[in-house]
Amino acid sequence: MKSVILASLLLITTSAFAQKYATRTGFLGFYSKTNIEDIKANNNNVSYVIDWATGDIQVSALQTNFKFEKALMEEHYNENYVESAKFPKATFKGKIENVASVNIKKDGVYKTKISGNLDIHGVSKAYTSEVTFKVAGGKINAETKFNVKCADHNIKIEANLKNNISESIEVTAKAELTEFKK
Amino acid sequence: MKKALIILIILIAGAMVYGLYLWNKPAKSAASEEVFATTDAPSIYQEFKNNPEESAKKYLNKNIEISGAVESFSQDSSGSKCVLATGSDDMGVVSVSFIENTSNIQVGQNIIIRGLCAGYLADDLLGGNLQLNQAVLVQ
Hints:
- The complex is a heterodimer.
- Chain A is mainly beta.
- Chain A contains two helices and nine strands, in the order H-E-E-E-E-H-E-E-E-E-E.
- Chain A is 15% helix and 52% strand.
- Chain A has an eight-stranded antiparallel beta barrel with strand order 1-2-3-5-6-7-8-9.
- Chain A has a single domain (20-179), classed as Lipocalin (Beta Barrel), CATH 2.40.128.
- In chain A, strand 2 (38-51) and strand 3 form a beta hairpin.
- The two termini of chain A are 33 Å apart.
- Chain B has one domain: CATH 2.40.50.140.
- Chain B is an alpha/beta fold.
- In chain B, 29% of the residues lie in helices and 39% in strands.
- In chain B, helix 2 (41-50) packs across helix 3.
- Chain A binds chain B through residues 20, 22, 24-25, 27, 42, 44-45, 47, 49, 58, 60-65, 70-72, 74, 84-85, 88-89, 180, 182, and chain B through 22-28, 56, 60-61, 74, 78-79, 81, 91, 93, 95, 97, 118-119, 121, 123, 125-126, 129, 131, 133.
């Protein structure tokens, strides 16, 4: 009897933590600010997958899905800078630090860090960033901001546009994740 | 001398007009682009799933007309979106983002859309996601 209780307890705890949350309509945006112009791009079709059992997080976005204010900017972004035909995806694979501190069963705001590799333009680089998880009504809102240097990902900006495009781009990642059920 | 000056002014004006045109060029959309292929959601999804790279080369940025059953529909500040069922054994979908807000789409309805192929994202857990942008509802 005791072992049955123990086994069922074990089962309950593992199933409570073996939980994957995901979305296909997360947000990823970037912002370049210079004295001459501000450039913004938004992508609302980004997939986010978090495995709360391991703290693994995976984010993937299609470069061609970033929407700019001007069609010409979008064209330059895809053709000259990230070369979308050659490198169609931007991906992030990482881990949530101290994942046990986020109680996905209890509504609240949890702050921790996230670290992993961001792959843009065929170049992968390690990043660490502060992240906020808001748990409310079974949904989890994740949000983080960090800076990416174009040169780190081998993205070259022409000399005559150096004043228009910032060398350091602010990236915002935001998503509402729900429990993933097959 | 005067003639050369006039020609120069015309050239500069021309360059400025062309520059303005480029700067304000409207984004490509499925409403204006020629239809490249006509298919249904399950077939094109399988084509991408079986051969993502070749399919991307073939369809990227092209206007594709796709028929399919609506699996979900949403509307928010980023616009109207719908997901077409693929009938695939993974969780794969065809995602469509419309240019204009469309409110007359019901879940389960069979629709025909035209959209520009933005690409295909494969995910172990979520399955594939074929994305179409700047889309219009045909029927």
